[in-house]
Task: structure prediction
Amino acid sequence: MKKKKWIIIIIIAALLLVPIIGFIFSGMPVELILHSIRYKADYNKDELGTVYKDLVYKTIDTKTMKLDIYMPRGMNKLKTPVTVFIHGGAWLLGSKEDILSLKDTYNMMEMLRNQGYAVVSIDYRLLDEQNNFPDNIEDCKDAIRWIRKNANNYDLDPENIGVWGSSAGGHLSLMVGLTDDNTFRGDAELSQYSSRVNYVVDHYGPTDLSEHLGLNHKKHMTKIKEKIRDVAFDVKPTEYENFKAKCIENSPTTSIKKDSVPILVIHGMKDALVNIAESEMLIEAVNQAGGSIESYFVENANHMFAGASDKTLESIVKQSVDFILKNTLPLKEKQDE
Result:
């Protein structure tokens, strides 16, 4: 009987350890794994309110790209402003469901919904041998175009759309906000609609792909960095000049203009995956161009704001939402076209 009990305990322990070991071997620092567990969002799916799930915004061959619309809490007579969330994951991992994973991300979504915003979480093509930059950028911009095309169907305000992303999603958000409508056009039908946004909220996103694609964690992330380099573009790192040119084309720091949209960047000062220097470079480039950027560097915080106190995480969410509120245009009544 005791033997059977120990076997059951060992099996349970193994099942619990498998995902953790998997994360470690993938290069994810243990601190971030523990942060993901400790700060996992706690919510009831039945209490999420009105959510339009798995809406197809484009089809590529036979692959459908989808998004979810989390409608605001409560009803009003005004058209609904939109904040689009772009998930992270080193451009290799993740999905639109990630908005429900961490407390700070979930809490920011809920705070926006309580303020009358719709939050749209999108999928995009992840990097692999068939999908490279700028496929993911095209997808993110096409999602904005789809929202604008279908705004009336969901009482959304097509003039009040902004983007928010973390890590790789921060990079993609910046690329959406900083590049012109006539660039990174994907779907032919959607290309007639604007991908313009009113603001960008960037949480610890890479900004210069020419230096290891914006990642600097040498000890733990070597395998991930190598994987990203191998599939980032349709050219290999050994083709140095072509590879460097592709990095420049897909970097936020080389896409800034004087009339670029307002940006808020928040970054942990001890970030081991995306060096804080990436955000400093972005701030310098925006200031030199005469653009608008605000920043908040979080003391003692690693990637994903791991190590920050509960109070600090609440402050990050509040600052992000306040920035969005400040950069939202006056709302129109629903009957206005």
Observations:
- Residues 44-326 form a domain with the Rossmann fold fold (CATH 3.40.50.1820).
